[in-house]
Amino acid sequence: MCGSISDARRLFDEGVGYGDNVVLWNVMIDGYVRHGMFGSAKTLFDRMPHRSVVSWNGLIAGYAQNGFFKEAVDVFREMQGEGVEPNHVTVVSVLPAIARLGNLGLGKWVHAFAEKNKIYVDEVLGSALIDMYSKCGSVDKAVQVFEELPKANAVTWNTLIGGLAMHGRAKDAIECFKALERSGIVPSDVTFIGVLNACSHGGLVDEGRAYFDRMAREYNLKPRIEHYGCMVDMLGRAGLLEEAEELLSSMPMQPDDAILKALLWACRVHCEVELGKRIARRLMELAPREGGCYVLLSNMYASIGDWESVAKVRLLMKELDIRKDPGSSWISIDGVVHEFVVEDDSHPRTKEIYSMLEGMSEKLRLAGYVSDTTQVLLNVEEEEKETALRYHSERIAVAFGLISTKPGSMLRVVKNLRICADCHSSMKLVSKIYCRTIIVRDRNRFHHFKDGSCSCKDYW
């Protein structure tokens, strides 16, 4: 494969040189993108004597589809700076990247640009906008976009149901499912993934069981591994671990690492150590280098104070050179994304941020808040545990948001891992103390903190 792209580049250089045949340049760049050689693609792109909108769209889409979301947005901004006018394809290509970064301000700008330039919002663009608003924390705007579409299809319905599920609005998602049925559209297996996710996040166990049954009985849809994953996650969250394990055993296919991690997480939350060890062993056999398994197992031991077992797991991780994904959170202020990691001191305003963190901790203490130090997975003194919790990345992001925005402004934070129980509890109180709505998107769902409570109703 690498040889073929090398040969293509040699022919390109010999036959075209650095001429201005835009089509051939685009083909060569597309070849690099398809081979995952993004550095070479960007280098060649930068050397192009003339770039068409197709050139820009190809690179933006390539970055976005391969997980390089920041790079996709950077190219989009560069495109604007060059005075090249985005078209329908550009907008559809960049919106998923904006959605993953949670940059609502930029997403709104793109939407406004599309409206101003009369870019037709068809089902494809409509679905991309619904997804963007949902993932950027503005699910009400996603609903509005859906309602304004000239025509809805299965994809737009599925996107809306999935967005509502992500925000814990389970009953709204179910009402959308019913409306989809009334409209005459036949639900697909993707539709049921959204509905089952909604039931999982909303704690609607009976409803989840019923929809899982209806899939096959009414619509002749064979459950895929994703549907079983939703069910295991739903039962695990509800503490029905025996039923979750039974369902796992009855699956017609082998469970994947996502299902096993969901059940292992539930074991950690509900302190079911023996089942957790069984699931962990299966996960290690399936994906021996999957760091999340070792981290969850270590966390489970730490939560019950079994530090000897914690040490054994961490030693095994060291021997296998398995590393934990570093936690990070980011917040967008005036269109600029600021990213933070735990105990981050790299930001130019670090002194102000840490001063705010101290102020937050003091106000929490005066309000009677007591830190949940079981969330600190280190065998250290209680005071050190409280200090460690104070500097989690999502708290640093919120502190930066508080010093960077006007009083009363909404704060939107994106986190790459699941929010810990102590940060979740403290965020509720912070929202009340500072009179702010704080929206946190973690790896699994959205949390809307307002007036001392969370939209998830502490079921997460």
Automatic annotation (TrEMBL):
PPR repeats lie at residues 21-51, 52-86, 122-152, 153-187. Keywords: Repeat. GO terms for molecular function: mRNA binding; zinc ion binding. Gene3D superfamilies: Tetratricopeptide repeat domain. InterPro entries: DYW_dom (IPR032867), E_motif (IPR046848), PPR_At4g14850-like_plant (IPR046960), PPR_rpt (IPR002885), TPR-like_helical_dom_sf (IPR011990). GO terms for biological process: RNA modification. Pfam families: DYW_deaminase (PF14432), E_motif (PF20431), PPR (PF01535), PPR_2 (PF13041). Residues 368-460 form the DYW domain. Belongs to the PPR family. PCMP-H subfamily. This is Pentatricopeptide repeat-containing protein. It comes from Acorus calamus (Sweet flag). The lineage of its organism: Eukaryota, Viridiplantae, Streptophyta, Embryophyta, Tracheophyta. The gene is PCMP-H38.
